[in-house]
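S1.2 Input.
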Amino acid sequence: MNFEVFILGCGGMMPLPRRHLTSVLVRREGDLFLFDGGEGTQVSLRRLNLRWKKISAIFVSHTHADHVTGIPGLLMLSSQVDRDDPLYIYGPPRIAEYIETSRRVLDMYINYEIIVREITAPGIVYETEDFHIRAFRLRHTKTCYGYTLEEHTRPGEFYPDNAKSLGIPMGPLWGQLQRGQPVTLEDGRQITPDDVMGPVRTGRKFSFVTDSLYFPEIAEEVKNSDLLVCEGMFETALEEDAREKKHMTAFQAAIIARAAAVKKLALIHYSPRYTNFELEKLLEEARAVFDASVLSQDRMIFPLEFEN
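S1.3 Output.
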């Protein structure tokens, strides 16, 4: 079951020639979810040959321009193809006003349904049988949310040899046990899933955090993520600037990653003051705290694998 994270843009504030503004796409078993949509989102989608018309939902952290200016073009582009399913947009208060104003002022031709849902409190905002997406509050200059996409636990591994040794005939009864249902054999014995299956297995988790003052409670929200994509906008020498603008340093992002016991930290949303070469300074500071840190770059791909 595939689960991939695509960095469509890694920059903050203003786009640069080789650095689009912050945007991340998650593809899980054919479902596509976009997290923020800064300038350049469409360009990276095309260069990665992603099926952008299959995007099910867009999750917006906040309504600053460098996180949303790529969305109107994406909405118009989706009208150039047949689309039967609605597009959901989740975000903080005023995201509905932004979408509606853009549609009206640009006189957009939209031939599919757009459903905007404003988030007013932390909690699960999107859920299926297999996973959910949760929003949690960050601390920025306007209402801002981080997001986690977390798969539900999976049944343990099925052991055919155990089933055979217990005299369970191959067929529907095996399927029932694998679905977590006990079965009764012809001789009256009741077999439970625990008799033929291993322990429950955890799913995978992706977390997205951008544009926030550092505060330690973020770690609890992103705990045990397989991948944490987190802003590291400044170096430690500019921590005062970061605090004033309610942003984080790469060092602070690494503190969160370490406290949350994530598997990998991908820094994002860099200040345009840094050239690509100078970004190594941010990586060095992050790795001093959390070794599994990387610099995200436009069109970088992170596959998330099951551990068991």
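S1.4 Remarks. The first helix runs from residue 41 to 47.
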